[in-house]
Amino acid sequence: MGYLLYAGTLAANLLQPLRLPHLTAYMLVGIVGGPDLLRLMDVRTLATLEPISSLAISLIALAGGLELEFGELRRSIASLFWTNFFNTTVVTILAGGAFFYLANYLPFAHEMTPLALGSVALIWGVLASSRSPSATLAVLAQTRARGTLSRWTLQFVMSSDIVVVVTMTLVLAIARPYLVEGSEFSWTRLTVMAHEILGSVSLGVTLGLVLAAYLRLGGKQFLLLLLILGFVATDLLAYVQFDTLLAFLVAGATVRNFCRDSEAFRETVVKTSGVVFVVFFGVAGAHLDISLLRKAWGVALAFFVVRVIASIIAMRLANRVANEPPTIKRWSWAPLVSQAGLTLALAASLTREFPALGQSLRSLVIATVAMNEIIGPILFKFALDRSGETREKFPSRSDESEVPA
Predict the structure, then answer these.
(1) How far apart (Å, rounded) are the C-alpha atoms in residues 198 and 221?
(2) Three-state SS for 111?
(3) How many helical (H) and strand (E) elements, i.e. helices and strands, does the chain have?
(4) CA distances from 198 to 61, 84, 94, 202, 205 (A)
(5) CATH for 267
(6) pLDDT digits (tens, 9 = 90+) for 88-122
(7) I need a surface site. Which of 68, 180, 181, 354 has the fewest CB within 10 A?
(8) pTM for the predicted model, two decimal places
């Protein structure tokens, strides 16, 4: 952890003149020190840092929820609907079509029937439509961006998280009969999904109301509170099989909209996130399989380009229908390139669903996500800079040291 904290902070400061996102520096440090290069961190070491990743996911979602105002969401319902609609349909169709077309270059797809190949292409298309809440919030936390683009990005990325999870569950239920012999379409999977979403929202609201009550009563032990939330509440959500990201997102939004004294709490979340992000994205970089990327870079690059083009097309259509302001029309595609934890989590679920196919498909996802994860945040920060919404720098190492212990 010491290597990630000090090397990551140093790399971020050295790359500051290039105006690169700090998370890019953190990931590069993780890649260099990971199992494929300098081997300063092996698989066992990375496993011991998983609790930090759990804390990071909690803080990421909580910070995102603390930026959401119900009044703004109500005014943006039409925009969010059309953006999610075109993002899901256009990206799924174009990315899935590219997968079908390039199947000859994928060894695991050679023996598939046309229906099975079409099913996998549909799954790939839905994976391509997923975005990265963690990368989005990390860039927004660094830049302290405030404005039309940053507000729209936060609302869309968080809402698309729910849309992608629901869509993937439905697609897996449809595709399973064509990929697993003897399987049939089951409504049970959809029932479980509905239970997970409703349960996550309910627990999120409850947790948010408890936090709001604590703040109203004058509670000041914010750091201790965040540690309890990050470790205890996360384990509880995992035990009952609810979505941590969604629950903490709802909790943050509840605090923002039902407590007037949430600003100091939000500042503590941001400062604490500064330290946790270094480790979280460093571990993410260390997990990137460089040897796999070296083998599959050609196909992964093709899928990366198709996904970017599909995102641009989807946003042009959505912006035209929703009549978005000029800033959104020009830059709304840039925040959509990043992919990270959500996509990898969905890919991991494929390994459990389809043992004969899932691992090969997951390896291809990892190779493609590696490009999206590195290039996406750079494009997003560039768009924020050009739109004039970036204000303050991400907390420096000296700032982070001021967080109370």
Answers:
(1) 30
(2) coil
(3) 19, 0
(4) 17, 20, 31, 6, 11
(5) 1.20.1530.20
(6) 999 999 999 998 998 888 877 777 888 888 888 99
(7) 181
(8) 0.76
